[in-house]
Amino acid sequence: MSRDPTNAADSDKSSGAGILKSDGQAIAQSRHHNATAEEIEMATTGITNDHGAGSGLPAYGATEGEPVSAEFIRDFGNRWEAGWNSHDTDQILAMLHPDIRWNDTVFWPEVIYGHAAMRLYIEKIWAVMPDVHFREVQLFPAPADGRALYLFEQTASAPPSTGVQKKATTYGCDIFLGFRDGLLSDYMAQYELAEMMRQFEMLPPRGGRIGGAYLLSLLGSRSDQR
After folding, report:
1. I want to staple 72 with a disulfide (CB 3.0 to 4.6 A). Which of 57, 68, 151, 173 is the partner?
2. Residues 200 and 164: beta-carbon distance below 8 Å
3. Using 50, 70 and 90 to split pLDDT, how confident is the model at 35?
4. Taking 80 as the threshold, does the pLDDT of residue 144 lie above it?
């Protein structure tokens, strides 16, 4: 789900790093005693020589999950929306595999692995957006690949710590990349944070800037006129 990281206590306001940094590391293990130095580095860091190279983030390709039925994906989507709107952490964790890999580095500074780390992540969401509500726009299933894309609408008030009395409605995608034993085992989030913060009036208008020029303008870069 989309998240709002504008928690004043957690952000590095002096450099903007609290919004922009993403230093997650993948957890992997080499299975070959005769692996090359490059293969060992790739296995232990999650960095590949093509997709995701140099990012420290996992690379994605062919599914490693299990094929599922269209009916399973439809039911999971229903439970997914109900779980997040319940604001019950245990209800969400019950849908996740114990070895879940959760990639939401827009909100969190690293890729998350396992239930214990996920609990911290979910509880932080309730803290910064206590009234957040999600609505499914459409579910796009790929049952033979064990994957699906969940397009959602999110409505939330600004984090209480900001003192801002505004609401924002934005859109994003929950990408279900794999299921194991009937549980979500691999996840990636895609959404835009800046639009949410503009609706909160916590960021200035875009002003016609394209691409990264808008983000650079927020940091006072000389490149903001490009």
Report:
1. 68
2. yes
3. very low
4. yes
Three-state SS sequence of the chain: CCCCCCCCCCCCCCCCHHHHCCCCCCCCCCCCCCCCHHHHHHHHHCCCCCCCCCCCCCCCCCCCCCCCCHHHHHHHHHHHHHHHHHCCHHHHHCCEEEEEEEECCCCCCCCEECHHHHHHHHHHHHHHCCCCEEEEEEEEEEHHHCEEEEEEEEEEECCHHHCCCCEEEEEEEEEEEEEECCEEEEEEEEECHHHHHHHCCCCCCCCCCCCHHHHHHHCCCHHHHC
- Sequence length of the chain is 226
Q: Express each pLDDT in 43-78 by its tens digit.
A: 333 333 344 444 566 777 665 678 999 999 999 999
Nearest to 178 by CA among 102, 125, 81, 124: 102
Show the tokens assigned to 216. 């650079």
- Of 62, 56, 144, which is closest to residue 103 (Cα–Cα)? 56
CB 193 within 8 A of CB 210: no
Measure the CA–CA gap between 223 and 226, rounded to whole angstroms. 6
d(CA 223, CA 5): 25
Characterize 53-62 residue by residue with b for buried, 16 or more Cβ atoms within 10 angstroms of its Cβ, and e for exposed. Answer: eebbbbeeee
- CB-based contact 132:191 (threshold 8 Å): no
